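Check out one such.
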Amino acid sequence: MKLSDEHKQYLANKHRGGLNNQKGSAYELIYASKEIVRLLAQFNNWENIFVASQIEDAFVDDFLIVPPDGYSIYHLCKNVQSLDWNKEQKGDPLYDFFWQRAYSLSNQERIKLKLVYSNEECKVHFAEIPDKIKDVTEKEHFKAYPSMNAMVIDNPSFRADINSIVAYNEDGYTYDELCALAEIIKCQWEELGQPNARVSLAQIKQRAQDKYPGQINFKGSRNVEIDDNVVEIFSTFRGFKYRTEGNNLRWQYRRMIGVTALSDELATKIIVSNPQNIFDLISILN
């Protein structure tokens, strides 16, 4: 599929409008920073994961993730009060998603599309995704935070991700330190993420370390293996979830989330203590 002159003009106007929309850009910037931190926490091969913003020749153009699985994940970020799927005029989400799907699939691009919105009272929040786009589309409510600091304080999942991408600190990280780390990531993305430029997570990480030597120390890329006896103890607690990330153990039980440095000393303590209830285990991990 080739873009028509009408579509080319629409995308040129859309791209120009996106660059000028400072309110929307602030929302996109904080959301993108949150996703970059999540990707840094989730993956180790950072040089093979790319992000971009304000994508030219894209209908869904606010933010793009290209992870190792080969899918291009296009995001449309809407910090507005009213939003629904019922309209299909230019500028409406359904219009953009329909044509992005058509354009990408005709060019054999493997895609996922995501609508990110701030108002959980809007119609999109409650409505089903339309049939014509639902095979490639999902939606996500993301609160409009005024700053990265506000997200650190309010969002425990984000705090856990921030904790998991940096090297272990035996004294733990204070809220102020986590806020500073989050702001560092955001600033690197803000500087590197120029319109239509693809940036790897490795570039963001390296720039952060170069600009703030000694202030941010990312985790190693090798995942530490958990002692088999510890794995067996973990398995006795229903609902306890965990995974290793570098030398950290990322765990969750109900609404409790934590990141604990893995070590021989920790494994020995768990095995010797042989906790009989989940709260004894969490006490050890904390």
